[in-house]
């Protein structure tokens, strides 16, 4: 397990490397370190603005080679969003290091928590929030497969489908309360009554009767969420959700 001293030392080393790399013309802290919420479990999240005319992927490869030479890198994961490469490093001591390589004209705050270290970012954009209608549709799709999996005796598949349904319920609830709806980041800040309703959607065992109970609780929660977001949409869905009850 990494220590906070190790993490903070590596974070400072990365910031120094950014300042000394002529291809990097801006840098910003992202996430908990940018908002003062960093704790024992926080990772390193550094956004880099690459000079105009320089290929960010080339810079990423050189930084990756340096990370592998200087740190004990267990694995990496690449995620791309809006043309930006987010390279996630998993170190052997379990520290996560997120380095993002932004084209010059794309470098900007896209969510709360973006503290500029140097350089000039472009104007910030609004956070990319999921569409409630899309979340509701994915929820009922998971409910369809949950019902059929339970009926067929495919209990682990049913469990996975219920997990997907619950994930959309969490996102819908977080959207209503102005919380981060992505990957459960805001769920622990929901009111106790709403968390209690979500608890009822979790099966206590991979067993047909218990999965059916959790499935029906999740359908009730979906009907309630749909009503809170769009009453007309909820009324159209109501007959189908009743038919999905097991």
UniProtKB/TrEMBL annotation:
It holds the Pfam family NTP_transf_2. Residues 14-49 form the Polymerase nucleotidyl transferase domain. CDD domains: NT_KNTase_like. This is Nucleotidyltransferase domain-containing protein. It comes from Occultella glacieicola. It comes from the Bacteria.
């Amino acid at each position: 397990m990494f220590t906070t001293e190790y993490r903070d030392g590596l974070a400072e080393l990365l910031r120094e490397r950014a300042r000394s790399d002529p291809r990097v013309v801006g840098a910003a802290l992202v996430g908990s370190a940018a908002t003062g919420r960093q704790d024992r479990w926080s990772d390193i999240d550094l956004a880099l603005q690459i000079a105009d005319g320089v290929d960010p992927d080339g810079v990423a490869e050189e930084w990756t080679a340096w990370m592998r030479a200087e740190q004990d890198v267990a694995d990496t994961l690449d995620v791309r969003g809006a043309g930006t490469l987010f390279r996630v490093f998993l170190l052997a001591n379990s520290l996560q290091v997120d380095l993002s390589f932004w084209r010059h004209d794309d470098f900007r705050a896209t969510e709360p928590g973006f503290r500029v270290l140097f350089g000039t970012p472009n104007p910030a954009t609004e956070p990319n929030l999921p569409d409630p209608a899309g979340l509701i549709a994915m929820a009922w799709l998971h409910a369809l497969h949950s019902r059929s999996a339970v009926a067929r005796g495919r209990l682990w598949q049913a469990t996975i489908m219920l997990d997907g349904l619950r994930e959309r319920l969490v996102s819908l609830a977080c959207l209503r309360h102005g919380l981060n709806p992505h990957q459960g980041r805001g769920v622990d800040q929901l009111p106790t009554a709403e968390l209690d309703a979500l608890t009822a959607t979790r099966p206590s065992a991979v067993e047909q009767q218990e999965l059916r109970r959790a499935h029906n609780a999740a359908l009730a929660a979906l009907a309630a969420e749909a009503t809170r977001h769009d009453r007309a949409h909820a009324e159209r869905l109501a007959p189908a959700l009743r038919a999905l009850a097991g």
